[in-house]
Design a protein that fits this description.
Number of domains of chain A: 2
Helix content of chain A: 10-25%
Largest sheet of chain A: 12 strands, mixed
Order of helices and strands of chain A: EEEHHHEEEHEEEEEEEHEHEEHEHEE
Largest interface: A-B, 50 and 50 residues
Number of helices of chain A: 8
Number of strands of chain A: 19
CATH architecture of the largest domain in chain A: Alpha-Beta Complex
Shape of chain A: globular
Structural class of chain A: alpha+beta
CATH superfamily of the largest domain in chain A: Fumarylacetoacetase-like, C-terminal domain
Distance between the termini of chain A: 50 Å
Radius of gyration of chain A: 19 Å
Oligomer: homodimer
CATH topology of the largest domain in chain A: Fumarylacetoacetate hydrolase, domain 2
Chain lengths: 311, 311
Amino acid sequence: MKIIAYANAGRTALGVVTGATHFIAVHDVAPELPTGLIDILEMRDGLARLRQAVEGKSGDRALADVTLKPFLNRPNAMWALALNFKSHIAETGLQTNPDYPHLFMRTAASFVGAEEPIVAPPDEVARAFDYEGELAVVIGKPGRYIPVERAMEHVAGYTCLNEGSVREYQMHNRQFGLGKNFEASGSYGPWLMTPDEFGDPQRHTVLTRVNGVVRQRAPLDDMLIDVANVISYLSCGYSLRPGDLIAMGTPGALKPQPDDVEGLDLSRQYGPFPTPGLVHMRPGDCVEVEIDGLGVLRNRVIADPSYAGVE
Amino acid sequence: MKIIAYANAGRTALGVVTGATHFIAVHDVAPELPTGLIDILEMRDGLARLRQAVEGKSGDRALADVTLKPFLNRPNAMWALALNFKSHIAETGLQTNPDYPHLFMRTAASFVGAEEPIVAPPDEVARAFDYEGELAVVIGKPGRYIPVERAMEHVAGYTCLNEGSVREYQMHNRQFGLGKNFEASGSYGPWLMTPDEFGDPQRHTVLTRVNGVVRQRAPLDDMLIDVANVISYLSCGYSLRPGDLIAMGTPGALKPQPDDVEGLDLSRQYGPFPTPGLVHMRPGDCVEVEIDGLGVLRNRVIADPSYAGVE
């Protein structure tokens, strides 16, 4: 099952995608269910009731007619992993403890949905604004002190995530802080895919395209710490809640092709770790994160419309 | 004005404290106002209406008869500062960039209210469970790109905060991650005090007592980066929202008195930076964070009731 949230008369409604182009509006087939995905996840049998309501039906609404929004209303926690792909550890030269997930947090305000624009900081504020293509996991079943072998029972589904990062701010201190939390700097979507449809996350591949050029591509089994181990670790201290999100980390940059002028030009990189094949996100860009068998998260990048210049 | 949240028939209600022992229930004098403090802060004139509703009245309910709860319903972001007091930087030997606030995030789930127990991790999980007495700032007026000289206009008020930290988990990697986010590991309260009553935060002192012994005491002007500069910095990337909280960092440990057996015993410290005068929080302890002219935040520490042993 693929669950979307979409803009509907000034509010956000839920849908279930059927096939490549159409979806079923949840309020058409199950008006008794809550309008927020987290509220449905919090019901013991919420996802099962949703599945039953759409079973055997085909979508009568076109995806092309709606705008997809973030599907996690009021998430309690959005965790993210630093340095969880061997290729990214190698390109940064940074160290991480291989025995424990390297975790930090993001606010819901730092993410937009699949068809909303990502906002680049003004040049005067920062220039090293980077994509990070990732798999994200959404928790369905609450839990604490979860053993690794039962961790996957707590997963409600998966989505693509662009963990947009402002490197200058990230490097102000050891804690990433604001650098990972610029307003509307990242995105997730296009939908939540349930585990029965996605299968084993380690058997998929994540890739990131900027303006059509593939900039990251890595098998998800290149992760240092896998989904089950991250869930089990978190549950040692934190009670996982339905709707919590975990962004599983990003791989390194692909080596650029010989004719890739932009990817070869290190003089246009503002970050601390110049890397062939890395380009920054700039207003006007189209950035896509694709996970095979899951879908494509595609966002335009725009300049900050709220910025009125330096005082 | 001192605003509390308290447990009332299974829900949380708001009150305004008048004098040392009594308060006015907001629903008694302004039933038209929302029941959540953030909802009131989100109204342009919410605090002014609350002030008007209680003006000249004295409290008819006893603080002793109610349980104080966290007063921030569904905060959007809870920021915290690492290494913002010179005495704490000195005792850890760690480095921080003096030009920028050193920021990380906590979840609402990591905090309890003024009269709820703080939960210590089981010994098998972690032992270096530390208090951090702090001033916390709550945002009232939203804003982005806020100049330093206008930053204090965005403050709704102040409170005491215990930024309880699990050092073993904090040290697993460079990002603090789970170590700063154990469930119910910290607290804030007892109330939100508005700036007209609190005055200039730099002219106050924070202290922490464990079982009656003062373990931290520092003037708030020992901060590396002050409240106005933190607000202005955050607003470069993040749109501040009513109800956002900023914990301003903790000072170093006080040197123990000669007869202070516990404070002198470094062999009972499990953290990475043994420091005379530092003791860990343990079940049974009473921990108090006091800011002069603001109030005392007092919590009991309990063992985790949800822990059933290692499998």
